[in-house]
Amino acid sequence: MAQIPLPSLPSLPPSRSLRAARTPALVAALGGLWILEGRALSRGAGHPVYSGGHHAHLHAHLVLWLTGLLVAACLLPWAPLAGRAAAAVAVSWSATGCLLMAGQPIPAWGITESAALLVLLGAVAWRTPVRPAVPLGIALAAGILAAPVRDADALSTTVVAYALVVAGVTALGLCLRHRDVERARAVAAAREAERLELAGELHDFVAHHVAAMTLLAKATGSLADDERVAASLRDIQEAGDEAMTTARRLLKVLQQDQAHRAPLPGLDRTAELVAAFREVHPAARVTLSVDPRFDEGLAPELGASVHRIVGEGLANVAKHSPDASAVGVSLRRSGERLFVSVRDDGGPARTPCAPRAPEDSGGLGLVGVGERADAIGGSLTAGPAPEGGWELLAVLPARL
Description:
Structural class: alpha+beta
Radius of gyration: 32 Å
Number of domains: 3
Distance between the termini: 22 Å
């Protein structure tokens, strides 16, 4: 049997790699703005609103230009976000104090500086812990609002416009923070639900083996001639009964708020999932390929996990690629590894992107099966397949 190729994962989690990809573009944009602002400042050095000498004019413009560069540099990941935000505040307020002490109105307010401070304000409201975020956010907002105040002739409407922009950026950062918190809670709930399900499955599987063990001990003890052997077998039987009682008690506590669990599905019911999907989607060509050696020595726990992963993969296809013309479910074995693949040929609803981990995929169902795969020593990824389309791929150990 041919081995299913594993998609290569990015070195960083997708959310971090996405931010890392955006940072150079943001810095490049601010760098271009800084260059344009420098040209504008050099042309306006002889602006008639100044009352001082030419050198004083150049000094004021140079302060604005260097401040924009230093504040924009705080967007680079050379330190934690809180430290970079504090450095940007110190630079901005130092420049404001220097310009206000000069006693001259500055028609150029530092566009690069204000833009970089706005980005930092949004990032602080989004990702910084609440306790340091409050003072840093206030200081950043004040630094932005101080830009038009440097010009004694600035209109009050300009200050109001700056305040509205600051409020909008802050609100955006807080909305992103709320979204991430809700997402983290949902992911945690999905993982907890899957762990409860795994606890129930553990009870069911262990119950089978422990019950068989106690029955064998009881039967063998009744036939044993040696009283010491019979006593040991009775101890084994009592220990097994106690273990079963404890397991049932703990499971009842864990699942006291859970609905009644259905009988555990196994590998033999995976074909039923595929057949049901085929009936619901008659326009798609749905295939099931099973390696004849796939279930050799397969533990019941693995069979239930395979069934769960295939079910979630088909549900993912129905949700995100309802117009797919071909869907393939493949169960293959290579040495001591099992490959469970659910692949579709894509559709208008699919958006190409890099392979990603379950918690970053947007679906809580994938978080659950990812938790299950991790619990048994496997892995699960979802993303574009090398041959095109979309693939949910789980790699599981053949033996536990």
